[in-house]
C-alpha cells in the first residue's frame, strides 16, 4: 500500500514557517528522491488539494455576496437571501465574525458562544443523539444475550461440547450459530446500506433496520433446532448491518465538528450499555421455569428481549430531522436548510453551514463527475485509499484486540475458570458494566486528546491485561486468587478498551471518507469489522478447546502490539476538522506519514522518557498546532 501511495505521490505535507531547518531538510530530501516520471501525477494531486481547500477564500466580498444571492435565488431560498449572504461571509472566514458589518450583536453573541459553550446546541440535536443511542443499545444487546444463551441452548439442541474434547464439531457449530449475524452483515447486510440510503435516506434506512431487528429477535426466540436458530440469527444481520453503517454517518453529518467525535462515539458508548443491559437480562431470565409445551424459555426470553429497543427506534426515528447532507445530495436544498435550522440555534449558523457544504460538494462533484465505479475509487484514488486503509485497520483491530471473544463467550470463560453458571453471569455483567462506565471518558477526550492518541494508549494496555488474564489460568484452582485475577484481568482489559479501540473505529470510519463515497466507504469498513466478528465468534470456542485460555489470551495480546504499530504508522488524526476538510489530512502520502511518525516516536522517546533537551519537530500539517485551539482550519466552516 505504501509503495502505491508513493507512486501516486500527492503533495508532501505543508510545513509551517517556524519549522526547524532539520525538519525542512528531511522532507526536501524525500521530495527530491521522487522520480521525475511522477511529477505530472503530483501536480494533478496538488491541484485537487487546492480545490478541496476552502474555495471561498479566493473571492472578494462583493463576488461572494453576489454568488450567495444567486445561490438563494436558484435554490428557492430567496426569502433568506440576506441570511444566506451572512452565512457565506462566515463560511469564507468563520473567525472574522467580529468585524463583519452585516452581522448584528446578537449574531456575534451566538457565534462567540460556539467557542465558549461547545455543548450548547438545540434539543433536537440531542433528541437525535438519544435515538442513535437506542439504536446502539440494540447492537449491544444482540451481542450479549447470546452470551447467556450459550449456557443453555447447546444442550437442548444436541451440540453441547464434551469437556476436554478440544476443537470438536460441537464447538464449531456453536461458533457458527453465534457468528451468523456477523456473517450476514459482512457479505450482505452492510452492502445494503448504499442503496437503502440512496432510496430511503438515513432515517428510512434506520427504520427498516429497526423493523428487521425486532422481527428476527422474536424469530430467534421460537426456533426449534440449532439449524433453525442459525437461519434466524443470519437474518438478524439484515437489521444490524445497515443500522451499524448508517447511524454513525447520520450522527457525523448532523453534528458540529467540535463535538462530532463525542456524538458519533455515543454509538459505541451505548453499544456498551446494551451489552451491559443484555447481561442484566441474562441474569434475570436464567432461572425462568419452562411452562407446559415450551422448553428453554429462559434462553428464548434472552434472545427475544433484544427486539424491544428496536421498537423504540422504529417509533422515534421519524421525529428526528433528516441529514442535511443527504437532502443536498438529492438537490432538496429547502429541506436541507429546514433540517439545519432544527439542528443549529440560529438561521445564520444554518445558512453558514448550508452554503459551505454546498460549495464543497460542488467542488467534489466536479472532481468525481466522471466516476465510473465508486467502489473501485475507494482503492484507486489516493485520498480515498488512505481513508480505507486507516478505517480497515481500526475495524480489523476492533475484533482482533480480543473484545468480542469476551463479549460472546465471557460466561463460558468464567465457567471454565471455575465459576458457577450464576456467578459467571454476574461476572459477565461486571464486564458489561466496566465496558459502559469506561467508555465515558472518551466522550470528553475524543475531540481534545484525539482519536489517534486514545488508540496509542489503549493498545499497549490491552496487551498487558490480556497476558495477565491468560497467565492467571496457571494459578491453581484451589487458590482464591485464581478466579479473582482472571476476573480482574478481564475487567482491566475492558477498561483499557472502552475509551480507545472501542469508540474510535466507527467514529473514524464515519468521518474519514468524502461524501460521494461515504456510504460505500462506511459499508466496506463495517463489513470488515463484521467479517472478523464472525471469524472471532466461529473460532474462539475451538481455540479455547485446542489452545486453552492461556494460548487464546496470548494470541490476542500479540495482535494488540500489531494494532499499536499499525495505528502509529497508518492512522492520521481527524479531530476538530470538518468532514470536507479531512481531504487535506488524507492528502499526505502514506509513506510520508509513516516516516514522520517513526521520527516523532523516536523524538518523543528521547525527549520525554530519556529527558533529553530537544526542540519541537516541525508539524506534519500546517493546521496541526491549531487543533484544539482553533475551531476552523484553512478557512473551513465549523459544521460543514
Automatic annotation (TrEMBL):
Keywords: Membrane, Transmembrane, Transmembrane helix, Transport. Residues 14-45 have a biased composition (Basic and acidic residues). InterPro entries: MFS_dom (IPR020846), MFS_sugar_transport-like (IPR005828), MFS_trans_sf (IPR036259), Myo-inositol_Transporter (IPR050814), Sugar/inositol_transpt (IPR003663). Belongs to the major facilitator superfamily. Sugar transporter (TC 2.A.1.1) family. PROSITE patterns: MFS. One of its GO terms (biological process) is polyol transmembrane transport. Residues 1-45 are annotated as: Disordered. The chain crosses the membrane at residues 124-141, 172-192, 204-222, 228-250, 262-281, 301-320, 393-411, 423-446, 453-475, 481-499, 520-546, 552-571. This is Major facilitator superfamily (MFS) profile domain-containing protein. It holds the Pfam family Sugar_tr. The lineage of its organism: Eukaryota, Fungi, Dikarya, Basidiomycota, Agaricomycotina. It is found in: Membrane. Residues 128-575 form the Major facilitator superfamily (MFS) profile domain. It comes from Lentinus brumalis. Gene3D superfamilies: MFS general substrate transporter like domains. One of its GO terms (cellular component) is membrane.
